[in-house]
């Protein structure tokens, strides 16, 4: 059976650190906590779990801190988490089982990263990240912010999920780091251009976000999933500026990179729905339900492949008088959101129409 070192970087995490450590303390063999300047009770709480607490002077670089954390590990494999991450009971069981069965030739294990949930506990957004890596491979973190772990070799995709459950966070932190890098004259990698654009968009700096998305795409060096995402985000930017033609153009540009993702399918469908071209809208909403990539490392907006296309198909079929099909899709949407008032209203109306 493999041994596992948990490595975490923390700062002022007294509100969440126990929740995280409680969820993994029985699974890992060693806990390494790297503190980057806490002024609250974080270290006092952590001391009840481990004496392996290390200080690291924060230098506005997440990779530097994470690489230092990895250097403290002594076990066969390294698990990394953030303080507001949790393994739910089911995932703890899956992890414990994997620990006893993992092939020692595996160099890195990916896990689902569930980023948000709706009121019905459906995962609304997720991606995959490599969470468990073989220590002897010496894998390194890259990037000052929105850092990534560069892995290679024999890779394994697990069914385990890490759930992100923040109570609060510094919304300005990442943007601040990027703007400091811009002022320093640092040349951005394509990945940095993309994530800086994301931060700009999140902070409603729309025109500057457009500038950096375009810079990113012009490099022709981006990861295909980021290219597709950049097109969708450019569509959102132009939508906010009221520029409908440019919005439509960027939705279509996403199709030039690969098979259309569910989010792009839903966007295309809505364009046709707005023009009352119902058969075309139906086609693309159905494609959204079919074009699901289960193992992608990219961000997944699950609403676009679950309840949302079904709900929109209710609208489409109702408009052309196919009320039984509308009812069927509403029932499928309700499976995901059983208390959604829109769907419950649809159910009442459609039952009357088809005499149920």
UniProtKB/TrEMBL annotation:
InterPro entries: Glyco_trans_2-like (IPR001173), Nucleotide-diphossugar_trans (IPR029044), TPR-like_helical_dom_sf (IPR011990), TPR_rpt (IPR019734). It comes from Sutcliffiella rhizosphaerae. Residues 5-124 form the Glycosyltransferase 2-like domain. SMART domains: TPR. Transmembrane segments: none annotated. The lineage of its organism: Bacteria, Bacillati, Bacillota, Bacilli, Bacillales. SUPFAM superfamilies: Nucleotide-diphospho-sugar transferases, TPR-like. CDD domains: Beta4Glucosyltransferase. This is Glycosyltransferase 2-like domain-containing protein. Pfam families: Glycos_transf_2.
